Amino acid sequence: MRIAILSRSRRIYSTRRLVEAAKDRGHEVQVVDTLRCYMNIASHRPTIHFRGDPIAPFDAVIPRIGSSVTFYGTAVLRQFEMMGTFPLNESVAVTRSRDKLRSLQLLARKGIGLPVTGFAYATKDISDLIQMVGGAPLVVKLLEGTQGIGVVLCETKKAAESVLEAFMGLNVSIMVQEYIKEAGGADIRCFIVGGKVVAAIKRQAQPGEFRSNLHRGGSASLIKITPEERSTAVRAAKIMGLNVAGVDLLRSNHGPLVMEVNSSPGLEGIETATGKDVAGLIISFMEKNAQKNKTRTRGKG
Predict the structure, then answer these.
(1) How many structural domains compose the chain?
(2) Which domain holds residue 267?
(3) How high is the pLDDT of residue 34?
(4) Is there a smaller number of Cβ atoms within 10 Å at the N or the C end of the chain?
(5) Nearest to 5 by CA among 22, 275, 300
């Protein structure tokens, strides 16, 4: 099987591991820099060019699209779909999961447990917005933030008002969420492949920090999840339409709450903490499912 990996660099751990896993199973694999691709959008013979030449047809494509290049990256992925290439995650699912507000609305509509979340535009609505999520302490999040960047814990109402006024003054989109104190600065990352949780880790924030992201100094350890947590993670990935996903959960007094569904979850933390060959499981899934033109949306998303 010929596999393309859409990634900015082959030196990134996740990209490197996927290349190794594919080659170990006898597949031909090429890392394609997403931003170096350019496209001929024709109705009969759509093509993708890379470094001056048309790309030869691939059987499957693995999108490792960074959040900063979501718009262009999903356009390239749609072009692969139009050419009949099987995508590990479809473009419409990636786009859906990257829109934090839309993804939470979709999850809420299907009854998935979420932290109480508010969204507003006008600064005059700040007081009611704070009350809507249960008051301080609360968490303010930039919709475009990743890896814990643009996430602020406001411990008092005054602090929340100041942060919200500052963000809204910059004309950026923000969400306000209740603070789940009982989570103790920890969350659970469930790694989904093909509708199953293949690995799960607990991510614990370092002392004095509430963000558990590994990029922010959090630690990862193996954890046994409950049947309810497993079911919630699998359902969340399915609602997003993702074959492979990292679903982040919080343990609350009223059950598991989904924080985010990640369409390009990193492999380093989960493989290091669990010792599992997650990259190999991803390639195995593609071997069983990759078929030409087997894309539900066929590039329409």
Answers:
(1) 3
(2) 182-284
(3) 94
(4) N
(5) 22
